[in-house]
Design goal:
Layout (H helix, E strand, L loop, with lengths): L1 E8 L4 E6 L2 E4 L15 E5 L5 E5 L6 E3 L2 E2 L2 E4 L5 E3 L4 E2 L2 H11 L3 E3 L1 H48 L5 H30 L2 H15 L16 H7 L8 E3 L1
Parallel strand pairs: 11-12
Antiparallel strand pairs: 1-2, 1-4, 2-3, 4-5, 5-8, 6-7, 6-9, 9-10
Helix pairs in contact: 2-3, 2-4
The chain binds zinc ion (ZN).
The site of zinc ion has 8 residues, from loops.
Amino acid sequence: MIEAIIGREHGTNCLVMTIGNNKVKLSANGAVPNTVSSTHCRLNIDDSGRWVLTNIKAALYTYVDGIQIESKRIQPTCRVELGVDHFPVDMSKVKAAIEEMQPVVYSLKPLKAVWEKYHNTQIRMQLDEKKKNVNRMLTGVLSPISMILFILPYVMKVEIPDWVNALRLIIASLMALMSLYFFIQSRRGLKDDIILRMDRLNEDFRSKYRCPNPKCNKFLGNQPYDLLKELNQCPYCHCKFKS
Ligand SMILES: [Zn+2]
């Protein structure tokens, strides 16, 4: 929603359009007759792009395509004149100024892809880490079991048949091999270092998860994608987003 006031600037006698704190010159200095007031008419543009022109004071005159109006929906191509002297408003300048002030809407789609990649990789890395932890745990459990199996008959000094002895040896060797395997696996896991991989992932995320408005480009890391979608605007520059 944009609200613009059009009128003659005191001192310069130039036609100006004021939108908030912005002032746009619509004519040369000294060009505007005194029959045009400083707050002569108001132009409202709603979110769907509808232009409505309103004559502010009854004692003033505003014309659209030659007809005096109080309030009227207009097009940027309409001929607008102010005051009894029919001073023409340069509508091409009005249109250009409005277009410049209209907020640009940025697509959130690229950010969605970046967020999903980051999030999914993070989850995968955590699951990998869990798996490695289970292996480490198994190593811790299997090693003492194989030791006990091996030593127990000697400690208890019991006679055991040869076939049981052979079986015991096979199981103990298998367990020893397995614990060795898990031990090597977990060492290898430590080498390719989850911290380094996490760091690379974070760096990539920090460089890409940024406000799509090139004038802002701030890192939006504290805002999960769903929250950004809900906010529908950048928390820093307040530019609009569409998902
Ligand atoms: Zn921003």
